[in-house]
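Methods: example folding runs. The two proteins below were folded one after another, and each record is reproduced exactly as written to the output file, sequence line first and structure-token line second.
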Amino acid sequence: MLMRGEQSSDVEFLLSREDVQRAHRRVEAADDPPGASRREVRDE
């Protein structure tokens, strides 16, 4: 996913932790059953 040889630290600087966490939750929701994913998303 890194572009132009950017290091992981650069990516973390560009993406806020909230966006990263939401992205991870979306990935988990795609793998988990609808009921379980909805319950976790509400924690936001």
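Second run, written to the same file directly after the first:
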Amino acid sequence: MLRIANIKTPKMDKLSGSARLMIVSDLDHTMVDHHDEENLSLLRFGALWESVYCEDSLLVFSTGRSPTLYKELRKEKPMLTPDITIMSVGTEITYGEAMVPDDGWEEYLNNKWDRNIVVAETVSFSELKLQPETEQRPHKVSFFVDKKNAQEVIKSVAERLDKCGLDAKIIYSGGQDLDILPQGAGKGQALAYLLEKLSSCGKPPNNTLVCGDSGNDAELFSIPGVHGVMVSNAQEELLQWYTENAKDNPKIIHSNERCAAGIIQAIGHFKLGPNISPRDLQFPYAKEASFKPTDAVVKFYVLYEKWRRAEVPKSDSVIKYFKNITDGKYVRCDEVRIQKSILNLTVAYVMFFCGWFVGDVRVCSLSSLALILKAESPEGFVLTHIQKTWLNGYSSGVEQAFKL
């Protein structure tokens, strides 16, 4: 039984009740497709999440990357900011944009764990090559090992550590990565800990969807009650685990879509909620039965991006929709992260959010946008005011690249 720490963290208190949906996704080759130079599937997922789920659901990234490599990936790819981040193969849990660590989880992992002994006992295995220093963590010792030697080495190392009285776990993934962790660690155990923690607060998620592509994701699919999707590009090691352990489980599917597109497909397959991304819609947008400010903001920026890329026909309706937008150089809106709806009147909403834009340089601004409900308009609302403030470290000298 995991011991739940009585620690309050910003994002655990994000919701007043249970999350409508909690998505727990691996990053490399699952959420992030490194073969997709335009990041199309990642952007499709981001638009869907921000428009439909961000206010009442939880997004969890579960990655084998260390904090250092995770932050590098965030600089390279247009990723959303998750509510919870699980790193280093389930040995580190942090919350929110500030990445507040879960001290209770770290304390739990200390049981029967001695990193120095692990290092000393593995040094004699010539087949093991230490990974870079950034990937060596307090509760993780990581190596590279050739696939042909992996199973024999795993068996020998496990026997050696067992004789030393260590309760350790060895995880092999990606055809080369070998991680030694405390027995209580791993992506699956970290998720079980989070679910128990949420339940102890009276906020168990209504539905949980886990997503992965490699061997170190297998534990995620073992958690009772979760839905799971193996993306179409899943590796042999995960597919073999599925065949041996879960092929009769109707809650786990092998998508025929790659990476984030497979996650979107799974949301629809399991009927967990809407799975049509605003990036898949055509303008003019159909009027929704109920007005959702986040949806309106995301659709606005998606349409603006397409318009600047000459991907929508020039028409009076588009010009009227944008009103005061001026011409400039090409810019793509990579992420619109809705932070908070601070004013909710009978007929008006004011939204504050961070917008990231990519042209020749990557820039960020804090924007405010006012929406007035207007039943007679095609979309059911009109945009009345937009203001942008460039954040520290981002020059307003690129203002000509993006004008509202």
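Comment on the second run: The longest helix spans residues 147-163.
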